[in-house]
Protein 1
Amino acid sequence: MRRVISLLCLLLAGVLSAAALAGHQVDQLLREPEPVREIAGALPEDEAFSEAVSQMLVEQTVSSLPDALGALVPGGLEHLVGPVVDQVLNNERTIAAWDEVLQTTRQDYTAQLEGIFARGTTGDVRELDLSVELTPVTDAMTAPLREQAESVLQLLPGLDAEDVEIPTPEFVVDIEAATDEGADPYTWATAAAASQHWMLFAGAAAVLAALGLAIGPRRTRWIALAVGALTAGALGLWIATTAASPDLTHSEGMPQAAAALLEHVQTRFTEWAQPSWWIFTGVCGFLAVMGVLAAVAVPRVQPRPVDWRA
């Protein structure tokens, strides 16, 4: 009986240790500003994303300016607006606006998942979709354009610059967070809610591991340790190659800026999440090897010879 309990304790400890690491990462992503900033904070510096956003801003800004202004600009309004957009993409105002977008999106999505957990779900996977409101970024980028346009508009006779308004382009990117159409929104919401208790999972794993080693007789405790470590290592390897390295597919008709955003986030998320799982898997592999070696090193109990003459 002690052998079975020892094995079950160490198996459960392996599963809970993997759950603790997963919960820790999910809790960081949803409730702390730094991980999201590390993953997507440098997005304005991404060439593909900056080109897509710049093109979008140039098109919308030019369409809002009077046609008469184009006659005063050699090469057309694009030559006036384009360089200004390129200069403002990475300035302090735009970077601050982008950080605001990131933190607002993180908080909104956390509230979205907590709402699903509280009220239930219809089962529609689209409940997990994520909306990124980029209007604060476009507002920060077009502010210098408005200032420059006002100075240029004053050159047009008979035109009051105050009568021409350059609107802030509204730009929202809808992201399909779940690439698997069979994903259950309530499972995601439950995982998000449970991630707050990752320290309890880690503590329970440590207690169960100590208990399993304490009650396991001789060689059995080390065999149980090897089995539990192998179980945890297998889970770590599976998560490292799946959830920690997601494939964010691009749907047809997705705007170029959204596609660039997804590609950037996919790369940086993998760089952030995967190393912890490689380390976890390596530690589990080491413990499994140590368990096997310890089990081999422990001498077998030799039965006492029976004295038939007694």
Protein 2
Amino acid sequence: MRNHMFFKKALCVLLSCLLFLLGASAADRASLFLGDSAWEEDSLLPFIEAEGKQLVPVSAFGAFSGITVTLSETLGSLLLAGADGYLSYNLNFGTCLDDGGSVTDVEIYRYGGELYLAPEPICEKFGLRFETEYASDGYLAARLTDGSETLSFKELLSMYRESGEEPLPYLYNPTGRTVGGTIMHPILLIPAVANVGNLLPLLDGHPTTFAIAPQDIKKYVSVIPGIYAAGHTVAYYMDAADFDEPQAFLAEMESANEYLFALLGKTVRIYISTEAYKSIPPLDGYFAKSCRMNLVADDLRNDRMVNMTLYQSPLFGIYNFSLTSDRETRLFYDEFFRKFDEADGLCSMTVTESSSVQ
């Protein structure tokens, strides 16, 4: 349950208009400051103030002497450590363990490939200070300091005005551009190799996971680069028959990963089954996901079934659904994804280690 709450609360994939803003003028903007300087990664990882939340990229804390930031997506963990102790975050459950043994629930967000957290608990732990201030043009800025700063925040902001002989950064607030939402995970279960080329245009910017049997990976050699290039990803499909010999299936995934790494420099740590999550055999080093909602052509032409997938299932913690890839079902993809886009606050994302288990 906590696993699904983590991604339900997670920041949604940014809208294209925000990406345009960042790409067009990121070099001219600043929103997060460390001490007496703008955060050097601000153009890609700004301070985010949205929906009443004030969030800071985790890597910014690693810029301070004595604080180390260690992230493992494979293990689903984030560690912030310093002389005063540590904070250990479990990305799967949305919890934080401190060096005193206390465990608390936390909200963890993603944006631009980075994890974002509320700064106050971290500042309290490591003796930092977090402050915000409005610039003269009305944009909200944030600053992290360790006590070594020489300028007040207002003085610092006065140096970052739009006027002057040289162009200087100005601040922006992505409110309305970066929003919380419900993240769904479309999956294509063992699509035929011949169908992949027809599938990619129909997905129309909706990140999707292609679940393939690991022993068949070489059959997909001609289409896997295109899958990744289009913003999608690959996971391994575990048939119910593999439950009887999980170690053999593990060996097949290891072998497939060697081939995939040689091909693209990537590996896969996720395997997907259509069985109930609790029945899927756990395999060391890999993350099991369950996808029990499998939609065929008749389902996509049925408004009740589509509404159940997009509106009712998330209320019960079900975010994974699969689409068959046969020609008849593909005819309904456009209409299905149109309804998907019309759903308020709904967005798609490929399956990741920390995504919903079902």
Protein 3
Amino acid sequence: MKLKKAWIGIGLMLCTLLTGCGAKENAYVVNPVDGVNYNNSSPYGDKRILKGENGFYYNGLHKMFELHYYDESSKQSVFLCSRPECLHEGEEFCTATGTDSLNDVILYDGKLYCLTYSWDEEDNTQLVLLRVEPDGSGRTKLATLATPEANAYRNGHLFIHRGIVFASYDGMTEEKEILGMVTYNLLDGTITNFPEYTFTHSLEGYHFDECLPNYAFMCAGNYVYYNEYRPGESRKNKLFICRYDIETGEVTDYLPSEIYKGVFCVTEEDRIVYSDKFGNIFTYNFATQEKQSFDKLLMPTRQRQEDGTYILNEVHKTNVGVGDFFYYKGELYAFLDMSMHFQQYIDMNWNKDGSYYVLGAIKLDQDMKQVGEILVNPIHNDEIREYLFGSEETGYSDYNSYMLHILDDSMYLQSDRGVVRLSLEDYLNGTLTYDLLMRFMEE
């Protein structure tokens, strides 16, 4: 009885925190809206937080169907379910949890869309698209997008722009791994299947080829850009940058000739900026097919003194890599990482457990030259670092495992422990103004 009363309280609180139980339907009909670019080049961006009107949505830390809502005013997280007596254990009527495996979730036009893996009566894998009401009052199955030949899966990604859903998947059998993608039109229900690509395993079960499902989706105008792995010769993959035309459904491919590591950013409707493994920066125009190359990013090396301190050597510089780009108010910025000779890099902070941090960010001009000083990495802040990664007392999580999102005028740093929000304007002006935003629910 006490348990039921507890969930009644949570259910009522959820209805109060959100838009109210039985909220009016908010489905668009005529004017599909643009998608949101998360400026996330990482292939592991399926754990992003989603900014609602008064709070944030997020999925569980594991590959299970588990939706939560964090109310910013009360600083509380609740299961995204409005049924007062629900135990949130995967029951049929529970909106927040389920027996499906939640692969990715995105907030689009006021509603949550979920990409899940489920299994039919014959135990075949199905890729399913669900829509969840923002107040947790209902969950609707929109379509079975694909039935990949697989007895297991790894991950996949979801993106929506102007009414078109992009869903990538990664199916596995004992002999091979299968990457694929489908689009689903929210206006007429049309499903379009894209070519599948097959990658083989070795006898020991390891992949000959490293491969990941399509990722890093970004939109600009009528176009959606993304990374796509395709099998290559001599066990080498080729990572393409693809552009999908919303109006025609056509895909334009671009295969960088450099050792491309998947980091790119859309700066104009036809133009992208990308980097190779060694810190070289390139631009490519899909309309004119023109490519431009720029010099490596060079940073001062660090020299250890006899007293154990370090000084910067401005004469002997070394190149750095680009961990991510982001484009903000017409200006391009690069987050630096340690692609080569990391022991020499500026601002490298070692921890007691031997881990290190990526570098800060720099602003780039039209010639991809650094403008101004290096912006400090927020992870160097002691309070932010402990909030996201713990301490000796609480136990460390992976220092290198965090994501960065740029939404509106804020920057979000997210680890498996929680989220920190920074004022983007202040950060770009050299000041750390931040809020220890939220802790994820205990699992």
Protein 4
Amino acid sequence: MKQSRKPINLPTLAVVFGCSALLLRRLLYALALDVRNLLVGSPLEIALWVLTAGVIVWVVASVWRLDGSNRYKDNFEPSLTAALGHYIAAAGILLTVLLPWYNIGKLVMLRRVLGILAAVGLILGGRNRKAGTRPLFLTHLAACVFLMVHMLGNYGVWSSNPQLQDYAFDMLGCVMAVLFAFYEAAFDAGMGRRRMQLATGLLTAYFGYGALSGSAYPMLYFGCAVWAVTDLCTLTPKPKKEEETP
């Protein structure tokens, strides 16, 4: 398979675009609120949505040409950076579910239990990534389940807000993180999809960094963004084997 220039800039650009969204959101809420603390029409909001639409198109166009082998060993080499990304995500989840420690309730306890399991899974997955061995699929599936429960638990708050902009990055960041964790688990189970893992990882990074402004869960989104951007499939895909071709 003839390959074009190695797109080593994809993870870096995802972070740069995410930080740009973060800056735009900070400026938006600093300069475009009325006396009722509601957003008024602003060129900053238009710029933010234009940037977001552009990033989505860029991600789709970039990963479309990166199809290749879906085998785990062809996509993931031993990586200390990827391991650290897992550990940072685990720390972000633990801090999110354990602080404040005095919160009680059935849903809070469920999130804590799932969050602890997700953190343990990510720590184990990080050890595998450092060693270059394929993790048990449950390690990443636990993170997927936790993020899904987190998303469903916050959906009421997000959807009831009259201003979509307030929680849009929280919602989209969580959705992308759920999908990224799912495709991580799929690779662990031998059913990986390169382009989907790359696309959801890059978008998790973009929306995760953008959500750091105004989110109630900054440590969670930061951890997931770092995990995603450090554990992408190789950007120089190997050709598919005959048995992989549908």
